[in-house]
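Hi P.,

Sorry for the delay on this. The queue was packed all week, but I finally got your sequence through. Input first:
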Amino acid sequence: MHLDFTIQLKLKAMKKDIHPENYRVVAFKDMSNEDVFLTKSTANTNETLEVDGVEYPLIKMEISRTSHPFFTGKSKLIDTAGRIDKFKNKYAKFKK
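Then the structure:
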């Protein structure tokens, strides 16, 4: 009986209508290694990707669990935007 009362109390304390209702399955694509995984999200996007014959909204990422050095154990990070090259070119004149 005490357990039922505790559950009822928690249910009454929860706020209504604060969570988004538009959760849907979305494809997330790691642009550094082309890995794609599906998960639920409310993120907006205009692009789509076909996975196993089904079309999903597409969210592009520069880094994910499959390419981040912490998760892969590799110390080298793949630079997809060319930022490392831009930095090296910009400061090459100071190199002696």
